[in-house]
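Can't paste images in this forum, so I'm doing it all in text. The chain is below; anyone willing to post the predicted C-alpha cells underneath?
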Amino acid sequence: MAIRYYRSKTGRMLASLPNGEMIDVSNNRCKIVTDDPSSSLSSLNQYGGPSGSSSAREKDKFDECNQLSSNDYSDLSNFESLPLVENIDSIKCSIARLSKIKDALAEPNEDFFTLISKIDLKKNVDFFLKVLENVLRDERKQVSLRLMSEDDVLSEVEPDAVPNEVRNWLSMTFTRSVSNMKKKAEDKPKFKSVAQAIRAGIMVDRMLRRMSSSLESNVPAQVSKVLKTLNDWNFEVFAMNECSDGQALRYLGFELMQKFNILSKFKIQNLVMQNFLEAVEAGYSKYNNPYHNLIHATDVLQTTYHILNNAGLMSWLSSIEIFATFVSAIVHDYEHTGTTNNFHMQTRSEIALVYNDRAVLENYHISATFRLMINDSYNIIQELTREEYKEFRHLVIEMVLATDMSFHFTQLKTIKNMISLNEVIDKPKALSLLLHCADISHPSKHWPLHEKWTNLLVEEFFSQGDKEKQLGLPFSPLCDRNNTPIAQSQIGFINFIVEPSLNVMGDMIDKIFEQILSEEQSRTSKSDLNDSSSASEPIKKKPIERPWAQYLTENKAKWQVLAEEEKRKKEQENGEKFSNEKDDKNDGELNKHQMS
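Text version of the structure:
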C-alpha cells in the first residue's frame, strides 16, 4: 500500500505509513513513495527524517505525529476493501465509519480535516447513502411479503377466544383463502350478457323517470328536518327512509351533491342526477334484501360524509375526488343479491363465472353502475373531461373493490405501513379504507341502530342458509338459523374487525392532518419570507374526534351479557336433549326386557 501525504493548515507536510504511523516530513529534501514500508523508512532516514541520530527536536515532532496515529483516519480513505452494499457487513462498516466521523466532529480536531480530503469524505457519504437505499429496498420487500400474509391476524387468535363458528366466519369473510371446490362434470359455464338485463330495466324505468318532479323543490318537511342532523354520528337513517317514503338514498345523495356544488362544477342536470339516484334505488330494491338495500347505502354515504367533514378533510380533497367518493358510497352494493361472494362461488353463479371468483359482487356493482351511466338519462359523468373521467373511474373502481371483505387485512397493513414509515398517505388508499370502515361501522353506532342492523344482517345470513340447505350445500358460517351464536359473532366482529379498522382509520386521519399542517406551515413560512410585513395567525391543529370508541365499548358490554345468556340457553338445551336421549334408551331397554 502506498504512503499517503497530507498538508496541515499550518503548512506542515505529514506522511501516513502503511503501519499506521504518522511522520512529519516537512524538512525532507526528498519524498519517496513505495509499497515497502521498511524501504520508505530507510529513505526518509537517509534524507534527514526522524532516525535514531535525529535531534531531540525532530524526535519530539515524531512523537507528536506518532501520537496522532491513535486517532488514525487512514481507513476512511480506503475504498478498495469496502463490502458490497447488499452484504450485511456494509451496515457494520457504515456504522464504524460514521462513528469515527462523529467522534472526530464532536471535539475540535483540525487534524481530521487535514488527514482526510473532501473527496474521500464525499465518497464515504455516497457509500452510506447506497447502504441506506439498499436497506430501504429490503424493508419495502419485507413489507410486501408481510402484506401477502394476511391471515396472520386471525391465526394469532387464541382457540378459546371465539367459537369455531365465529372463527370460520371471520376467516372465510375477511381473508381471501378459499378452499378448492370439486367441480361437477355436468356443470358447464354459461356466459350470458349482463348488459341485456340492465338495458331492459332501464327502458321500463325511463318512462317513469321522465314523469318525476325535481327533488330540489319537493323535499318533504320531515325529510328536511332529518337532513339537519346530517352531522350526527348516530344519524337516524331508518327514520329518514320512513319519512321519505322509502327514498332516503336519493334525498341524501342529492343533498350532498348540492352541498359541495358537484352539480354545477361538473355540469350535471338536476333531472339526470335525480334519474340516476332513482335508478340506483331501484337496483338496491331488486332482491328485497333485509340488510344490503338502499337504507344501508344511505347509512354508508352519511357515515362517509361524517368522517370526512368532521375531520376537516373536505378541503384536502378535490371536487372530482369528493364526487367519486360520494358515488362510490352510493353504488358500493348496487344490485346486491343478498348472498355472499362465497355463495356465488359455491353455486357457480353467472357473475362468479364472469369475474373468475375474484371480488365477485364488488366487480359486478362497479360494472353495473357504469353500464347504467351509458344511458344519457342517467349519465351523471357525461360532461367530465377525459382526465376527470379517468380519475373518477379509477377512484370508484379502487374504492368499491376495497369493500370486498377479503381485502380487509391487506388494507389495514398497507395503511399501517404508510403511517409507520412516515410516508405521504395515498389518497385513493385512504378513501378506500374510509369507505370500508363506513361499510362495517354499524357496531360503532348507538345500541338501537346497531341492534337493528345486526338483526337485519342475521336474517339475510339465515336466508342464505335456507338456500344452501335447499341446494344441499354445507352451511356458510353464521348462516344456520338453528346453530348460530349471534352475540359471540358480534363480539368477534367488533374485537377483530371493526375496532382495529376504526383505530387505524383514526391514526390515518391524524397523519393526514399532520401532513396538511406541515404543508400549510411551509407555505406560510415562504409567504412570510416574501412579505416580512405579513402577520398571519399560527395554524391550529383541529382535534380529531373518534365518536365510535364510546359506542364500541358500550355495545361490546351488552353483547357480553347476551353471550352469557346464549351460553346458558345452549347448555340447557343440550342438557334436556341428553336427558331425553337417556329416557328413550331406558324405555327401550324396559320394553326389550318385558318382551323377553
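The two ends are 111 Å apart (CA to CA). Residues 567-596 form one domain.
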